[in-house]
DNA sequence: CCGGTGCATGTTCAG
DNA sequence: TGAACATGCACCGGT
């Protein structure tokens, strides 16, 4: 079993990854039926039961063998083959149990019968790769009858190869509080099982393989994600993730290998009922097998380590099943609070901002304007009201705990005044909870439209232009439906808007930024990235103009450009546009409303809903503002605000934007009074026209803030922003050619 | 009366 | 045509 090849293999121990070894050894069984390649060192450790001790010492999941007291690692791929979950609680190692289960261990390859070998768990993204192949799972099934703990694999599976999760790994799915999940009416474990409540017999059968092998349009290639900071949920120990992304109302169910499934949340999913219908294939591939309709509780961990418990169950449906996750509302809502997802779409580099109303508003308030305050400080604006309209979270603390940690960003000191938004209050979570219960939709909207919040009125375009990846953010490229997204661990920051001018005959570009104090324009490196608050003193690129007292450079070229832009803007927008802007809400409220929830600004559309009789007229909850599916479904070509908004917001929007090449100006013109998500957030004419206006206003006021509200520094909450090239894009979009 | 639960039904889509 | 899915809705229990 030892190969003496060098250089042609990679040690499949993710903690090692060595490509050279004097000897290559075989490790755990792979899905393909082959055995993992291990370098000599890892292979030796594996063979001698020292794998865990060698590589996983610091990881959780260690247990003690009930029989021999040997320390066992029960969370990794190798150990699951050699760890037995005792009916009466605790675990036993293979050595101790072997005699009881010869059917299992006698079939294990190599020394696995004797090893307590452990393999990688350091990289969850590798886990599935190391998953035993289906045949092995079947083999292990035989053991089911031997060491049954009462968990009987469903024989009437709707799928002949119904996958089952490795219950060894799945033990982590069950919290101690669910020590007695009902499956077939039998307890998985007796009391005192310490949460170890399963039979080893249900090996992770690589059930997803059917999906993997049969890619569909919804099974997409993606690099190992590790969730990449997205708002995700990890099925602990299973190497699967459910990723709630703010992009649209989508749920990405992805494994850590190469498959990814997206499920756009329907109104039902995100509605007050709190039930999320799972695609059957996903449910059977990624979730534990269930035989009873009442299902089992699933512990799911989000990327912040927060655990959620959902009830995974099914309903009989025709002759099949409909799998649902119950109790997802708090989680989804929590994600809403913290998850505004910004992703860059290629080609085009457009930032797609997926946001939900509550989320966005909260984030916006809580970040750039919060002076470090938590963004759960929804304050008097009642931004969490919308949650109430759906479902009060069962675990508000979770909602709150999941909020962004970046609120004290150094970028956050400028811009809108928190006190102007929330009255200077810094309510506790309890307060927020209280408000959540008491404020209604109308209150919220009224408040957001109030004068206090006027400074929040940033247009969609403006908001997009201000978003930048945080300085140290390194994107993880995720491919979703053939479009690459850059996911960032760090939330975006609000940067200062600058202008790139291509004014020289050589075509060389220049970037200009204005001082927040004196409004003088300063020439910057073309790749400069200004913080939200930037003054002459921060001008490290030009020592002669690093003070507000220094004269401004000749702006002839720039001003010509800006003037031209302004004229163009005036032509295009016209008087009606202005009037519209005066009447219609704009800015964050509109943006937030339109982003996901549909254009709630169009009250008439919302008010006429009859889809949810229990919802009152004007209800703007997520259920009511989404176009119905089924009978009342809107046509694909439906141009109503709800449909268009949802399309724009979701990954569907990504497709649309790329496929259709929507002309922003046209759409903007067509949808008066709305934040048009079709519009190009970097509409350069708009940007420049605005720039001219702002510039002139600034000049008039002698020292006013150049860009009005544009300095909102800080960050959005749990946010991803396409940003590795944000500056590039920004420069492109704001480029002005003379 | 209201909200939760479980199932039925209509629609869409893939084979 | 059947499977999958979204959601409508009847029923039931709690308030």
TrEMBL record:
Chain intervals with Polar residues compositional bias: 111-122, 141-162, 373-397
Main location: nucleus
The organism's place on the tree of life at top rank: Eukaryota
SMART domains per the UniProt record, alphabetical: B3
InterPro entries to which the protein is assigned, alphabetical: B3_DNA-bd, DNA-bd_pseudobarrel_sf, Zfn_VAL1-3_N, Znf_CW
Ranges where the CW-type domain occurs: 506-556
Compartments it resides in: Nucleus
Bias (Gly residues) ranges: 710-724
Species this protein is from: Brassica napus (Rape)
Keywords: DNA-binding, Metal-binding, Nucleus, Transcription, Transcription regulation, Zinc, Zinc-finger
Biased composition (Basic and acidic residues): 123-132, 659-702, 725-738
Positions of the UniProt region annotated as Disordered: 104-162, 373-439, 651-738
Name this polypeptide is given: CW-type domain-containing protein
């Amino acid at each position: 079993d030892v190969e003496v090849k060098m250089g042609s293999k990679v040690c499949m121990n993710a903690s090692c990854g060595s490509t050279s070894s004097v000897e290559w050894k075989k490790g755990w069984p792979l899905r393909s039926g082959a055995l993992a390649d291990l370098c000599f060192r890892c292979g030796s450790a594996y063979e001698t039961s020292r794998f865990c001790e060698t590589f996983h010492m610091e990881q959780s999941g260690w247990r003690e063998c009930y029989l021999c007291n040997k320390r066992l690692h029960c969370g990794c791929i190798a150990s699951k083959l050699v760890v037995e979950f005792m009916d009466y609680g605790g675990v036993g190692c293979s050595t101790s149990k072997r005699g009881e289960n010869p059917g299992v261990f006698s079939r294990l390859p190599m020394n696995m019968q004797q090893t307590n070998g452990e393999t990688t768990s350091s990289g969850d993204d590798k886990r599935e790769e190391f998953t035993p192949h289906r045949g092995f799972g079947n083999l292990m099934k035989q053991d089911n009858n031997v060491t049954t703990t009462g968990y009987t694999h469903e024989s009437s599976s709707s799928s002949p190869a119904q996958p089952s999760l490795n219950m060894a790994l799945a033990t982590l799915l069950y919290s101690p509080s669910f020590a007695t999940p009902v499956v077939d009416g039998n307890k998985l474990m007796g009391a005192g099982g310490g949460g170890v409540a399963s039979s080893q017999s249900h090996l992770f059968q690589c059930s997803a393989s059917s999906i993997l092998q049969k890619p569909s349009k919804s099974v997409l290639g993606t690099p190992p994600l590790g969730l990449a900071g997205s708002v995700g949920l990890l099925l602990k120990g299973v190497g699967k993730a459910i990723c709630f992304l703010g992009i649209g109302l989508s749920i990405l169910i992805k494994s850590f290998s190469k498959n990814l499934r997206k499920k756009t949340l329907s109104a039902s999913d995100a509605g007050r009922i709190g039930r999320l219908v799972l695609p059957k294939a996903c449910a059977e591939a990624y979730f534990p097998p269930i035989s009873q309709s009442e299902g089992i509780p699933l512990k799911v961990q989000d990327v912040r380590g927060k655990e959620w418990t959902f009830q995974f169950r099914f309903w009989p449906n025709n002759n099949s099943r409909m799998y649902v996750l119950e109790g997802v509302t708090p989680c989804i809502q929590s994600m809403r609070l913290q998850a505004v997802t910004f992703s860059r779409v290629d080609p085009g580099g457009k930032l797609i901002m997926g946001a939900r109303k509550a989320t966005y508003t909260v984030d916006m308030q809580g970040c750039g304007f919060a002076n470090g305050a938590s963004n759960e400080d929804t304050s008097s604006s009642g931004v969490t009201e919308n949650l109430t309209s759906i479902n009060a979270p069962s675990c508000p603390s979770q909602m709150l705990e999941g909020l962004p940690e970046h609120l004290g960003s150094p970028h956050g000191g400028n811009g809108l005044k928190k006190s102007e938004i929330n009255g200077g209050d810094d309510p506790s979570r309890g307060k927020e909870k209280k408000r959540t219960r008491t404020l209604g939709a109308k209150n919220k909207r009224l408040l957001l439209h109030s004068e206090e919040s006027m400074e929040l009125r940033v247009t969609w375009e403006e908001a997009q232009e201000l978003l930048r990846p945080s300085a140290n953010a390194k994107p993880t490229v995720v491919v979703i439906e053939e479009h690459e997204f850059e996911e960032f661990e760090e939330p975006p920051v609000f940067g200062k808007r600058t202008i790139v001018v291509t004014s020289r005959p050589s075509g060389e570009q220049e970037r200009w930024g204005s001082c927040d104090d004196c409004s003088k324009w300063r020439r910057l490196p073309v790749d400069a990235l200004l913080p939200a608050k930037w003054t002459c003193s921060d001008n490290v690129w030009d020592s002669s103009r690093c003070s507000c007292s220094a004269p401004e450079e000749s702006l002839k070229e720039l001003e010509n450009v800006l003037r031209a832009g302004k004229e163009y803007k005036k032509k295009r927008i016209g008087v009606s546009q202005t009037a519209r802007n005066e009447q219609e809400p704009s800015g964050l409220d509109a943006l937030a409303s339109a982003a996901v929830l549909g254009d709630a600004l169009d009250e008439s559309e919302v008010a006429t809903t009859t889809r949810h009789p229990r919802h009152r007229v004007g209800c703007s909850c997520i259920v009511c503002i989404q176009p119905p599916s089924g009978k009342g479904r809107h046509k694909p070509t439906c141009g109503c605000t709800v449909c268009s908004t949802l399309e724009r917001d979701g990954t569907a929007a990504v497709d649309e934007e790329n496929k259709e090449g929507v002309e922003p100006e046209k759409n903007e013109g067509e949808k008066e009074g709305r934040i048009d998500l079709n519009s190009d957030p970097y509409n350069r004419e708009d940007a420049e026209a605005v720039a001219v206006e702002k510039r002139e206003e600034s000049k008039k006021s002698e020292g006013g803030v150049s860009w009005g509200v544009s300095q909102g520094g800080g960050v959005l909450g749990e946010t991803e922003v396409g940003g590795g090239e944000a500056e590039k894009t920004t420069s492109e979009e704001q480029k002005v050619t003379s």
